[in-house]
Amino acid sequence: MNVIRTDIPDVLVVEPKVFGDDRGFFFESFNEARFAEAVGKTVPFVQDNHSRSARGVLRGLHYQIRQPQGKLVRVVTGEVFDVAVDLRKDSATFGRWVGITLSAENKRQMWIPEGFAHGFIVTSDSAEFLYKTTDYWAPEHERCIAWNDPAIGVVWPVDGEPILSDKDKRGVSLADAEVFA
């Protein structure tokens, strides 16, 4: 496994070692000991989620203000542009974002620790997205920041308006959001 630090050092890109031949491929998608070494601590994952979305669907920017979730995310079909936004008020990178392309082809994963908002947009015809979380989904604590908040300035690879859920249409600005102390 190759671990790449992003412009926000706590957000990591994980590239698995892929073994392939004319029959197909094999790779280890998660190894607790190796992952703990990469992030500097044991990370207890408690829930796995799987979503499927069509081209142009944007999900995010989501986070939970209580029961914050760290997420290890990957794509098994298609391609997405995946984004993490630092919401840790005392962080040197507060309000900054990092984004990478995750695809079935590149098999990359992104580690988004607790204290970040997360979102993605589907850039292929469809995409299936898998993620492990460090805490359970708690809808009463879920919050959403507007995908297009100019204070954050995410550069999404989208032509026109993305397809949003009603919840995501109601996302607030970073200035109005509850953040992590």
UniProtKB/TrEMBL annotation:
Superkingdom, taxonomy of origin: Bacteria
One Gene Ontology biological process: dTDP-rhamnose biosynthetic process
One of the record's GO cellular component terms: cytosol
Positions of the record's site feature: Participates in a stacking interaction with the thymidine ring of dTDP-4-oxo-6-deoxyglucose: W137
Gene3D superfamilies reported in the protein's UniProt record: Jelly Rolls
Pathway: Carbohydrate biosynthesis; dTDP-L-rhamnose biosynthesis
Gene Ontology molecular function: any one: dTDP-4-dehydrorhamnose 3,5-epimerase activity
Record Pfam families: dTDP_sugar_isom
Catalytic activity: dTDP-4-dehydro-6-deoxy-alpha-D-glucose = dTDP-4-dehydro-beta-L-rhamnose
Active-site positions on this chain: H62 (proton acceptor), Y131 (proton donor)
Family: Belongs to the dTDP-4-dehydrorhamnose 3,5-epimerase family.
Subunit structure as annotated in this protein's UniProt entry: Homodimer.
UniProt-recorded name of the protein: dTDP-4-dehydrorhamnose 3,5-epimerase
